[in-house]
Amino acid sequence: MSQAISGEKTITIEGQKYKVRTQVTYEDGLGIPGTLSTTAPIRYVVQYLPKPDILNPIPVWTNLGERSPTNQNKWIFTPAAGAGFQKELSANGPNSLTVSLDDATSNALSKSAKVTKQQANLILQVAPNLAPIGSSPVQPTPSGATPEPTTTPAEPKEINDPGLSVEQIRPDGYGNYYYPETLSNNQNKQDVIKFTAYSYGGRPLTLGGASSSNFGTPGLADRILNSINGSVTLPIQPSITDTNSVTWGNEELNPLQAFGAAVSYAAGEDITAAGQQAMTTVEKLFKESGGNVEKAVRVYLAGKAVGVNGLLSRVGGAVLNPNMELLFQGPQLRPFTFTFRLSPRSGTEATQVKNIIRFFKQNMSVKNSESNLFLKAPNVFQIRYIVNGENKDHPSLNRIKICALQSCSVDYTPDGSYMTFNDDSKTMTSYGLTLQFMELEPITEKDYSNDRSKVPVQYEPVSLDEIGY
Q: Does the N terminus or the C terminus of the chain have fewer Cβ atoms within 10 A?
């Protein structure tokens, strides 16, 4: 359904000026340009904008009446149309309000429905609330005239990664680094923590059957993470902690807000009807609620109308029941901080330590596109606690989802003084490395599944006897 709303006109009723307009509701054509062929009648109503008052500080357009289905020159009035409005709308003649409204309505319908004004007039001359226009379709613009363009709703399309290429600084990857270097073969089967780098790829926007006429189930596919040749393996740090959090917050819904929400929900798409129904029901509630309740609500609305907070509390020592409740507001992403002390004991281990520091620094750096118009995201990291050196997740420690490295801090003098080895590179005797990560996605219950088909490909299912995330 579509609507055509005319321009506003100001009229005087019993010494008061009011704004009036018309609203025509109709069905769109069946794909024929310039044609309003439909199987349902149109609805032609006249509305006015009430004056604001204490009960209605923000007035809405209210129906006065609609055209009779049997008599084009007669209106069927609503209770909102008093004697003054009825007299004005019932008047005939070339200068009457009805003629003026018809002219404004045909202009609005012509523009909205993409037809000529003559065609719009023909539509309005048919008993609008009775006969389907489809029984007497309006024909396209006559030959020789330029038809107005029609608008077809755009079909939604999936949004995929544009595939921006980046400058390759290390096309062969980074290598696999260990500290201490004896972890490279890990003959002692020591438990370790392993950081593996991945390129941060796109995440296509999927439609899930959505179209111009069906919302479907649009969503996001799993992010594409491509493995690159690069990892760091270190001993597990002494302090191992994690914190899972979700956001809950205080929310309020007082009785008037609850009532307004219920009325709006019941009205569906007809917002004007929602406003009318809300005001009618409020007045009914006032009449049935009794004197003190009515007075209290009037004080509350008076304060809202003039922007004074707490007027009811000030004069009556009361507030509307806020119905306060703690409500779920969303998940939180988990941060992780790791601190390592790297003290090389040989020339080869010194090289490993410097490569480890560079590994984190370079992988967290933003990337330049080849055109230099864009910057691409840094690489991201998979972090795993591995038990017995067997490339198996530690069942008694927390798992960690793919993370972004937000901060890499290096202390080159952790012992409080400048000291180096006597090698050609003047390697520092010790380095302090602090890494701050943040998971890319929040934890959901699905992450605890032990069903391979329900777990993203970059993660492993969680067995029932593991802690999981």
A: N
